[in-house]
Design goal:
Elements lengths: L8 E2 L4 E2 L3 E4 L3 H12 L7 E2 L5 E5 L12 E5 L12 H7 L8 E8 L19 E12 L5 E4 L3 E11 L11 H14 L9 E4 L3 E4 L3 E13 L2 E11 L9 H12 L8 H22 L5 H7 L6 E4 L6 E7 L5 E5 L4 E4 L4 E4 L4 E4 L3
Parallel strand pairs: 3-6, 5-6, 7-8, 15-20
Antiparallel strand pairs: 1-2, 3-7, 4-5, 8-9, 8-10, 10-14, 11-12, 12-13, 13-14, 15-16, 16-17, 17-18, 19-20
Length: about 350
């Protein structure tokens, strides 16, 4: 049904929290998820969680309480309309087997990552759950960084299960490299878009050339038994020219400079294409290991042969060699010794060609 605004106003920037709408066209997956969900609701039909609890209802109820920590999930979405998400466009562009097949969409939320609580550790593997928002008020980045998430950005968090005793399960940090690569390939794999200058920056950023950041990924994992439950948070600029630049700006510039007529992207279209690429990369990695994805990764990244300094501006000089099998950055020092730099504790300062310890 059509969206109507709720009474709660998020005062810091006057954005309102809206209901969450539930979509899952495959009927068997929809029934599986709803049964799983309803088995875990309390007497008030609420799925309790540490940060955001979800009240499951078919339609909006008169006087229903809506707060940043209690949001309704509407299961009857007939007549749904939103500028930020068209389910038909999303499904037409989604080519996954599991990932992103169950959608929770909301117009505004603090961060999509908070919609996943401890209950995700019990999610059936067949449920590829994703939370998508048109806007976030407290988007998360690495460490304590915040990501500005205005209208026009693609913002989502997806849940994926990775077996511990698998190729990727043995080097789980590699996932954060596959996410930005999937975003870049979502654009460049379309005929005509191959020369759009989108690049990957180690460890988890999306860049326009080597000039401006367009977005990035935040990946967290929890081991439950022999399964990693991985949350993939991702945000990138699609049609918002501020605060930096967006993909559609780059396409428009490309059209002017090359006399082409490439069409701009929709947010729902690119999220679906990103998930499709990402699931393909997961399958390739699981069957072929790192060497199955590294050639494409090196083709898209910014760093081949780049000279950097380590730890401080007057630190030792080194040259980037590539990634090791765990996804750590390999650099060769002047004495030819090759060392690995872990992504979780370090950051790449592009402006200064400096690898520094990440501040938390």
């Amino acid at each position: 049904m059509p969206k109507t605004e709720r009474s709660y106003v998020f005062r810091p920037n006057q954005l309102k929290f809206w209901d969450i709408c539930f979509f899952a066209p495959p009927q068997d997956i929809k029934l599986l998820f709803l049964k799983w969900l309803r088995d875990r609701l309390d007497v008030q039909h609420v799925l309790r969680s540490e940060k955001v609890s979800l009240k499951v209802t078919e339609t909006q109820e008169l006087g229903m309480e809506v707060t940043p920590s209690l949001l309704p999930v509407l299961t009857d979405t007939q007549g749904f309309r939103s500028e930020g998400f068209d389910p038909q466009v999303y499904w037409e562009n989604l080519g996954t087997r599991l990932l992103g097949r169950v959608v929770l969409f909301t117009e505004v939320v603090a961060t999509t990552m908070d919609l996943f609580g401890g209950w995700m550790l019990q999610l059936p593997e067949e449920v590829g759950l994703i939370a998508i928002a048109a806007r976030q008020t407290q988007g998360k980045g690495r460490g304590r960084n915040a990501w500005i998430s205005p209208k026009g950005s693609a913002m989502f968090t997806a849940h994926v299960c990775i077996p511990l005793h698998s190729e990727l399960g043995r080097c789980i940090p590699f996932i954060q490299h596959l996410v930005p690569l999937a975003v870049v390939e979502a654009v460049l794999s379309l005929p005509g878009y191959e020369d759009i200058d989108l690049r990957v920056k180690w460890p988890n950023d999306i860049y326009y050339s080597g000039l401006m950041k367009l977005g990035g990924a935040l990946v967290t994992s929890t081991l439950m038994g022999t399964t990693f439950h991985v949350l993939i948070g991702c945000g990138f600029n699609v049609s918002n020219s501020n605060p930096t630049i967006c993909i559609n700006d780059i396409i428009q510039r490309h059209n002017r400079e090359n006399g082409t007529d490439l069409q701009p992207f929709r947010i729902d279209q690119l999220i679906a294409r990103t998930l499709t690429q990402f699931e393909d990369f997961l399958h390739t990695f699981q069957t072929q290991g790192p060497n199955g994805v590294l050639p494409l990764y090196y083709k898209r990244w910014l760093h081949s042969g780049q000279q950097v300094r380590l730890w401080r501006e007057d630190g030792p000089v080194a040259h980037i060699v590539g990634l090791d099998n765990c996804g750590f950055l390999q650099v060769q020092q002047e004495d030819d010794v090759i060392i690995s730099v872990q992504p979780d504790g370090n950051s790449f300062d592009m402006l200064r060609n400096l690898i520094v310890t990440k501040q938390h």
